[in-house]
Specification:
- There is one protein chain.
- This protein is α/β, with parallel strands linked by helices.
- It contains 14 helices and 12 strands.
- The radius of gyration is 22 Å and the shape is globular.
Length: 339
């Protein structure tokens, strides 16, 4: 763990200008409108591990994914790849090829006019990693076999494959440049449950065999528990809790994390009383002052409505980082329950 993390985010933020045209703003006498998709996110991913980000739709997970591979430039903060600013690292092709992304929709992320061999081979050609057509074909065939397809599938088009097979093609394309760091933006959300399990097992095997590091984006808590070493819970552009996977699922600390856990079906039918979270997710264009979760939080007080909580070690579970004044002050009742 003393080794520098392969990827690190430091107060990373991304804002989007969603203002109406100038003339309409002038007539309506309104100012510019800024959507704070990611609003000061910090985390680090050690080599060979998986960090998952979870949260409701619109919380900023996919924006973080695009920031992590340089598809978006940060509005504030910085992203580091092996200690080097990401913008600087991506100028070097030898470094850029070491980070790749698996996109959410296997139906939209593959060019329907290209054969599979061309899709998988494109990064190899772009980075000059094969000498001649024969070497390229051999490399593509090997990649297809690694992900559970055959070399002969390279002559087919994406529409000839099922959803799970298309996602395998996407994984083969991501692996074709020999990356060390993969950003996986909900890679199983468009797939059937049985196919999800196959893809997750494939990704775990590839991580073990190739030493890959994953930033895994998902809203499916059961998937996250299966693949993660650590989990970050996002809400309204911020990380509310960051903890080892099993710790997060067995002893969630932040009230929002507890609410997410309450949404998991109780298969053992213990009869435990659940407390659903009321209210609606605030708009990222006009977030509430203080803690972003305070309008819906049962533990919120005046401080929560006034001050933004810092992500700090939680009382009683120091391996957990939590942004919550109630946890910091001991108002969550955790220490009393533990005693």
């Amino acid at each position: 763990m003393s080794e520098a993390p392969i990827f690190e985010a430091r107060d990373l933020a991304r804002y989007f200008d969603v203002s109406r045209p100038a003339l309409q703003r002038l007539i309506a006498r309104e100012g510019r409108r800024t959507l704070r998709a990611v609003n000061g996110v910090s985390f680090a991913i050690p080599r060979g591990t998986t960090l998952s980000l979870v949260g409701e739709s619109g919380c900023g997970k996919s924006t973080v994914a695009r920031l992590a591979v340089g598809l978006y430039e940060p509005s504030a903060g910085e992203a580091l790849f092996e200690g080097v600013p990401l913008e600087q690292a991506r100028r070097d092709p030898a470094q850029r090829r070491r980070m790749q992304m698996i996109f959410q929709d296997p139906y939209a992320s593959l060019n329907p006019r290209w054969r599979v061999a061309d899709i998988v081979g494109e990064p190899i050609r772009a980075f000059g990693m094969a000498n001649g057509g024969a070497a390229l074909r051999e490399k593509v065939g090997e990649l297809l076999r690694i992900v559970g397809l055959s070399a002969a599938d390279g002559s087919r088009y994406p529409h000839e494959f099922s959803g799970g097979q298309r996602q395998r093609i996407s994984i083969a394309r991501a692996l074709s440049s020999n990356p060390d760091f993969l950003v996986c933006d909900e890679p199983t959300s468009a797939l059937d449950v049985s196919v999800q399990a196959q893809i997750l097992n494939l990704m775990k095997r590839l991580q073990r065999d190739l030493g890959l590091t994953y930033l895994f984006i998902s809203h499916n808590l059961s998937v996250v528990r299966q693949v993660s070493d650590r989990v970050g819970v996002m809400y309204l552009g911020r990380i509310m809790e960051l903890a080892p996977a099993e710790t997060l699922f067995t002893t969630p600390r932040q009230p929002y994390t507890r609410a997410l856990m309450e949404a998991i079906p109780d298969l053992e039918m213990t009869g435990r009383k659940r407390q659903p979270v009321g209210g609606e997710v605030p708009s990222p264009i006009s977030p509430p002052p203080g803690c972003p979760f305070n309008p819906r939080c049962p533990l919120a007080n005046d401080r929560c409505r006034r001050e933004v909580p810092a992500l700090i070690p939680a009382r009683g579970t120091p391996e957990t980082l939590v942004a919550c004044h109630a946890v910091e002050e001991g108002r969550d009742g955790f220490l009393a329950q533990a005693a």
